[in-house]
Amino acid sequence: MTDAQETAADPSPLDPSQPPSPSDADRPPVALPAPVPLLAPREGVPEVVASEEALAQTVARYAAGSGPLAVDAERASGYRYGQRAYLVQLRREGAGTALIDPVACPDLSGLGQVVEDTEWLLHAATQDLPCLRDIGMVPRRLFDTELAGRLAGFARVGLGAMVENVLGYSLEKGHSAVDWSTRPLPEPWLRYAALDVELLADLRDALEEELAGQGKLDWAHQEFDAIAAAPPAPPRKDPWRRTSGMHKVRRRRQLAVVRELWNTRDRIAQRRDISPGKVLPDAAIVEAALALPVDVQALGRLRGFSGRAGRRQLDQWQSAVDRARALPETELPQPGAAPSGPPPPRAWADRDPAAAARLSKARADISARAEELRLPQENLITPDTVRRLCWEPPAHHGPEAVSAALAGYGARPWQIEQVTPLLVEALDAPAA
Predict the structure, then answer these.
(1) Which candidate, 349, 362, 368, places its Cα nearest to that of 425?
(2) What tens digit of pLDDT does each residue of 45-60 get?
(3) Peptide bond into 184 cis (omega under 30)
(4) Cβ(395)–Cβ(371) below 8 Å
(5) Would you say the C-alpha torsion 340, 345, 349, 354 has a positive or negative sign?
(6) Is 31's pLDDT higher than 80?
(7) Side-chain half-sphere CA neighbours of 3 within 13 A
(8) 312 Rama class: left (phi>0) / alpha (psi -120 to 50) / beta
(9) Among 20, 83, 323, 381, whose CB has the most other CB atoms within 10 angstroms?
């Protein structure tokens, strides 16, 4: 009997060895039993680890455990500044489930060391790895159940959907967007958090079997290894350019206002440890940039600055606008970020008809191949890689040159094997 079956309250739970599979797409539809609600962890909701003594006991318990380590982390996106973890959930055979408060226990490197040689199980690993790395937890090996679901061809790959479609259980997802910086954390939130790691091992086993049956298990391991080996992302250049609504801002002086307001907001948000959007909405920044208000009275009439909080802070916002208005022309930002790759594909037909023909052929063939393999096109090969290769192809269009170019862009061996023949043919496509 699997852990998932032991957990279910229903005396006749679904058999998780028979998950609905995308490989069954051509078979007549079968009416599936309703999913079994998963209401509580099998050992109950554990106490939150919030002291060095409790953390030391947890480290010892997990060092003595066996098998893979299920890991999840909860952040306070939209409430707090940054993406730090406010709760870490773990589960391992022989160790049970642990809920750790990384505010009270900010250094989990000791825990990370005792489990660094085991396989970590995460759902959407790239979302949680940065905040886990910040507290000293870095996996050497991992299994990403969301990515595994994509490679296996599942249409819905959220944790709740995967648990339901693969294992036959339903998870409550009502607390996914709450403020996890809240202390103390309410018991229903903790129960929800514990259930997020309750079935990851079962899900991993079922997906591994599905991927092996489709001949994709090695592909998945290559993807997981690439995630584990990836270095931390570098700081984003000119993050203010990602302000929502920036497409409306076209003049350089207006861009300078966005930059000054964004930087002022960011300093306030960081100091107060609050989400920047709660300090000043993006829409207000854009509106001020378009209006270029000359004084506090004009600024206060703009939407987004007329509320009570806006009035208290009008002077500092107007000071930011004034700084942008006073900048010399030589210090104004350029209209767009410096290009780091090919131009937008819509411009290719005019600028380079041959490249446009190559891209059209490559896109069509890769889309067809992805459909044959029953996986998302972007998982077969990233669209950016295809664009770069078609815009600046290697001097020789043979398989070796194309394979080398793909490897240089970070493509994994399985991807290179699948798409090289398609791209070799596309690079020789005649211009329309």
Answers:
(1) 362
(2) 999 999 999 999 999 9
(3) yes
(4) no
(5) positive
(6) no
(7) 21
(8) alpha
(9) 381
Average pLDDT for 303-307: 82
pTM for the structure as a whole: 0.88
β-bridge partners, 89: 72, 99
The region that residue 341 occupies, defined by phi over 0 for left and psi between -120 and 50 for alpha, beta otherwise, is beta
Q: Which two tokens stand for residue 380?
A: 């077969």
Which residue in the block uniquely carries the two structure tokens 């063939």? 365
| CB-CB neighbours of 322 under 10 Å | 14
- In degrees and rounded to multiples of 5, residue 68 shows phi and psi of -70, 165
Strands 36-37 and 141-144: unpaired
Q: Are 321 and 299 in contact (CB under 8 A)?
A: yes
Residue type, 91: R
Each residue's pLDDT tens digit, 249-262: 999 999 999 999 99
Q: Which residue has the higher pLDDT, 15 or 23?
A: 23
Distances (CA, A) of 344 to 238, 286, 340, 352, 382: 20, 24, 11, 12, 15
Name the β-bridge partners of 405.
Answer: none
Residue type (1 letter), 130 = P
Which residues lie below 8 Å from residue 288, measured CB to CB, with a gap of 6+? 257, 261, 299, 302, 304, 305, 317, 321
Give the integer Cα–Cα distance in Å for 333 and 236. 16
